[in-house]
Specification:
The structure is a homodimer of 198-residue chains. Chain A has 198 residues and is mostly helical. Chain A folds into two domains: 52 residues, Arc Repressor Mutant, subunit A (Orthogonal Bundle), CATH 1.10.10.60; 138 residues, Orthogonal Bundle (Tetracycline Repressor, domain 2). Helices cover 67% and strands 0% of the residues of chain A. Chain A has eight helices and no strands. In chain A, helix 6 crosses helix 7. Chain A starts with 17 loop residues before the first helix and ends with a helix. The interface between A and B is large, with 41 and 41 residues. Chain A binds a DNA duplex (30 and 30 nucleotides) through loops.
DNA sequence: GGGTGAGGTTAACCACCGTTCACACTGTCG
DNA sequence: CGACAGTGTGAACGGTGGTTAACCTCACCC
């Protein structure tokens, strides 16, 4: 409202639509308190409107959470696919690419990381199924690479390995901002590679 | 009820008091759905009583959660202290002792691990402070060891390292039971050591 | 200039859930 | 036997919070 240039009707990263503002604010609040502890009034207040105004943009509070989690899973899966393709054939290079990608994502979106594994259970059954399917696909990308890194290890072991590496990298929200971003990124990536290749 | 030997009035691990049964059932339910999504009636039903019966054993639902989290933090802190003392002077041996301890704890109590970092925010302010203080003490035990393992690294970096290792080991609830317990324990411990010493 | 549609507001509705209450049952102890 | 403590029950209360309804306003456009 104060800034004149709102070209069309929609978002542009720097000038996000109301809908986008709501999703971002909700992600932040959900990460801090958990989705069930955050009221629609809280989300509204965070973007300067009242609670019921939310319903002009989302069918329900659950739909908001569903869209949030679906987007995260899709971004991770798409990003993983892309990075693997760009990394060439070497398993080590592919692993490094995946690690770097996931570290960047986690450092850029700590709130999303938190919500993703805390509030999955709050989704409706069909939404939860869809999100889990995307997550599974992403995990399997990692597993495929890890199987090539450890030719004599079982797939199950590689899957456990992948989850462990996710846990390591996703610890970011817990050790918030005490280290400069590049330092933190390098530390996490080194640890992740070491754990994944141990 | 089926087993005759209920010597005094109280618990004995195999024959836990009603109070203890409630805490265990609640931990399980809280881990599965999140404390705010679990009703008092659910907890009651899980031990074969109605919801209000809970109040014969706990002052409130929040008090239940508080006791649960306090116990976890205390067990971790006490266990860590004990294992370090028993490990001798070598930093590498102390690290190995901490890792083995934490891996065992996580594999034995996946539900508690989940609740601990998902529902801390649901605690009342004074309870949350107390739990965080215990957690911090436990983290600092790890940091002290890690500082000796990495003499030229900053304390802040070692703290981030500790959180990352926790994330790695605490991934257990996500990769539930596909691997035999000893295999899983060895895998996690090896990865944790590799990450911690990278 | 009046119809239209997008986006907000306030007030009300309603379901759910933590908590309390009044009462019942069962043992033990004096 | 009768008090009493411990534990459980069903019913009721009250707050919270998601959702809907009715109404308003403004930008836009033929």
């Amino acid at each position: 409202m104060t800034s004149p240039p709102d070209s069309a009707l929609h978002s542009d990263a720097a000038n996000p639509s109301r809908r986008e503002q709501i999703l971002r604010a909700a992600a932040q609040l959900f990460a801090e308190r958990g989705s069930r502890a955050v009221g629609v009034d809280d989300v509204g207040a965070a973007v300067g409107v009242t609670g019921p105004a939310i319903y002009r943009h989302f069918a329900s509070k659950d739909a908001m959470l569903a869209e949030m989690l679906l987007r995260i899973s899709e971004r991770l899966l798409a990003g993983g696919t892309e990075r693997i393709a760009a990394a060439g054939d070497s398993p080590a290079a592919q692993l490094r690419a995946l690690v770097d990608f996931h570290v960047d994502f986690a450092l850029d979106n700590p709130a999303l990381i938190t919500v993703q594994d805390r509030d999955l259970g709050a989704l409706s059954d069909p939404d939860a199924r869809r999100v889990r399917q995307l997550q599974r696909s992403y995990v399997e990308e990692w597993v495929a690479v890890l199987v090539r890194v450890h030719p004599d290890a079982s797939t199950a072991a590689c899957r456990a390995r992948a989850h462990a590496v996710f846990g390591l990298i996703n610890s970011t929200p817990h050790s918030a901002g005490r280290l400069a971003r590049p330092t933190m990124a390098a530390l996490l990536a080194d640890m992740a590679i070491a754990a994944a290749t141990a």
